[in-house]
């Protein structure tokens, strides 16, 4: 089960007209927001609003300018972690920070998460979307996930019971409470070196310092051969297609497509969520016109009307 909650939690309190923190640093507000510190808080939020929206790190989220009416449960403080070095396992609550969890594992000499270095996410969000990249996916380290459905029924799912695939877990409709990771004992220095190398690659190829949610679109699988790109059935880079469609540097309002990486959309002061949404629509249209490929968003967009 998830690690024990901290003692003396702050009482459950609902904030009104509250900002929703995302990595884009733009977007609408929550009519109601509660800051989750314990599993009991999370279950109470669910009782308060069965349609509660779960906010983790906000790294893969864009909130439309009109905000949202449903209760938003911010889980950053629901972040307790427990390490068992002898068993090579880590238990983490849903709001635990993935980069910090990776650092914890590396310091403990536990291998299996370091390939995810540089991915900003909470544990719940990372599992929900099966976060990953060139160096691996989080599913590779997951042993079990603790969830609750919208009726408040708890379950523990083993990795084999979860429909993991590329940027997919099949856990939509469920609320993640926490997870267990099965790792492998390893020497600390090689683990740290691998982590540093992964970060070096990302710093060289991605605008990590910009206000961005990371990759905006999933890498598509081609339905037909594309000359000079790949054969049908191959998964290709969405950023490459956006680049070849002539979109790098494209700007709408305060949002633009990064010159460094075509799948990173960045914002500047004064940008609106609608700028980003319109830019996503335009890039998707140009890629479809150029290659006949439909891009599927990786970024989650919250709207007042679901």
- Total helical segments: 6
- Low-confidence segments: none
User: How much of the residues is beta strand, in percent?
Assistant: 25-35%
Lateral arrangement of strands in the main beta sheet: 6-7-13-11-12
Question: Helix coverage percent of residues?
Answer: 10-25%
- H/E series: EEHEEEEEHEHEEEEEEHEHEEEHE
What does this structure look like?
With about 300 residues, this protein is of the alpha+beta class. It is built from 6 helices and 19 strands. The chain has helices at about 40-50, 100-105, 125-130, 190-205, 240-245, 275-290, and strands at about 15-20, 30-35, 55, 60-65, 70-75, 80-85, 90-95, 110, 130-135, 135, 140-150, 155-160, 175-180, 185, 210-215, 250, 255, 265, 300. Strands 6-7-13-11-12 form a 5-stranded antiparallel sheet. The mean pLDDT is about 95.
In short:
This protein has 306 residues and is an alpha+beta fold. Helix content is 23%, strand content 26%.
Present the secondary structure layout.
Elements: E1 14-19, E2 29-35, H1 39-48, E3 53-55, E4 61-63, E5 68-74, E6 81-84, E7 89-93, H2 98-107, E8 110-111, H3 123-128, E9 132-133, E10 136-137, E11 142-148, E12 154-158, E13 175-182, E14 184-185, H4 188-205, E15 211-215, H5 238-244, E16 251-252, E17 255-257, E18 264-267, H6 273-291, E19 300-302
What key attributes describe this structure?
single chain; 306 residues; alpha+beta; five-stranded antiparallel sheet; four-stranded mixed sheet; 26% strand; globular
